[in-house]
Design goal:
Layout: H1 4-9, H2 17-34, E1 59-61, H3 66-75, E2 91-99, H4 100-117, H5 130-161, E3 165-175, E4 183-192, E5 205-210, H6 215-228, E6 231-234, E7 246-255, E8 258-271, H7 279-285, E9 293-299, E10 313-327, H8 333-338, H9 345-377, H10 386-406, H11 421-440, H12 447-458, H13 464-473, H14 475-497, E11 499-504, H15 507-512
Parallel strand pairs: 1-3, 5-11
Antiparallel strand pairs: 2-4, 3-4, 6-10, 7-8, 7-10, 9-10
Helix pairs in contact: 2-14, 4-5, 6-9, 9-14, 10-11, 12-13, 12-14, 13-14
Length: 515
Amino acid sequence: MVGFFWLLQITGDQNSPDEGQIFRTVRLSFLAERSLFTHRAAPAPEVVFRCKTDRNYIKIKAMTEEKTEQAVEQAAAPETKKEEAPAVSLERTLELSVPSAQVRELAQKHLRGYAKDARMPGFRKGHVPMKQVEAMYGMRAFDEALNELVGQAWSKAAQASGLQIAGAPKVEAVEGANGDEETMRFTAKFEVFPEITYPDFKALNLKRYTSTVDDAAVEETINVMRKQRVTYTEAAADRAAQKDDRVTVNFTGTKEGIEFPGGKAEGFQFVIGSGRMLAEFDAAVAGMKAGESKTFDLTFPKEYGPADLNGATVQFLVEVTKVEEPHFPTIDDEFAQSLGVKDGVAAMRADVKKNLEREVSYRLEQRTAAEVFSALDKVLTFPVPAAVVEEERRAMAQQYAQAMRSRGLEAPKDIPDSMFQEPAVKKARVGLFISEVVQREKLTATDEQITARAQSIAASYENPAEVVQYLTTDRQSRVNVAMQVQEENVTNWLLGQAATEEVPVEFDKVMKGEF
């Protein structure tokens, strides 16, 4: 069987085996990253004291020492800008109370623990007088006891409320925060998940994309594999770079005379015409010889990535340090053998077709799902908890930085919150809705579906049984496969509810993502 390695390479730099290896890794881990309805536990928005009895840390304001206010400022979470003021507020408040006597009693227990390890000149370890121990650790013990008991009070109140709470609460002292009153009172402010109702699905016009793999597609793919096994030799000094050549360059990009993040690299290699670089960059380097430099203008696509570069015209200074010309292998039995096919060229073509059909099916499924969820976003209007939006925004920022680094570019150190705010709101809203559909329509992935999907993923590997075993028994991998299945279940369910049109797509356009 042909290894999955070469097949995935055609989604990236067709002339770079290393790039293909990256794509293979991505495909093994893509399940967790692409799910639209997976929401991780929201991070604690602000932390002052860590509650040992509750996963969500609690922030308590108006405590006795100045260090508390400093901790609040240092631990304050990034401000989340809302898309618009929601018609229905998700904010709720619960009253909490803790007997002061319990706080003092628990604080004494913590002090006794500190006393066992306390050290002070003139005393043996564990024999420091309690009065001195209290002077050293009294406030810390009080803070720990208070935070623990407030955490317990919050857990009980939250459970008793029956509310579906999103994120960690912000707890503020009302009275008696120093323990002077008989009862210490607090308010816990938090957000809840919204009530979700179904929109009019019949008003949605959805598309299901289809395609076929013919002999021409198989030959084209084999030619791509041939290019993937290319070797290079350094070109003559007077030979200009051309299509399919591998070039090594240094470049610096500037906008209005100022360098922009991710626009500079040294010793950067790429193949002209491979699609790894923007077409204007390819065209500028083609025709240059080793040792030459030039400056040229480049206009980024309108939806390139960073908002300040979308559609912007920038200037690049590029220096070509090396030009290498390609040498491609002949398509014969030896070539088939190099791909792991022992039965010759005909068997290789059959394996290629099976793998292509699997890959085309996957891409069509992804595009169909993306359009379904995009259409869904346009009819959903319910408010989204800030904690959920912030988690999505952070994940998007991390993925963007990783993508930059994977291309050999420098990732921006400080990514503005606003850069991914709007898409984070949309993704979070659709994700919450999809979660509701999964529960209400009972679309959770079954064991049979998980196994079937794992077998489909593993079919292109040399040892499918081992891959299936890993995907179905490793805890996180199984969760990832289940999420992929659930996404497919939801997509198919939504297609069945709306007016759906089947749209055939040419093979080339499927593989290039031009549909």
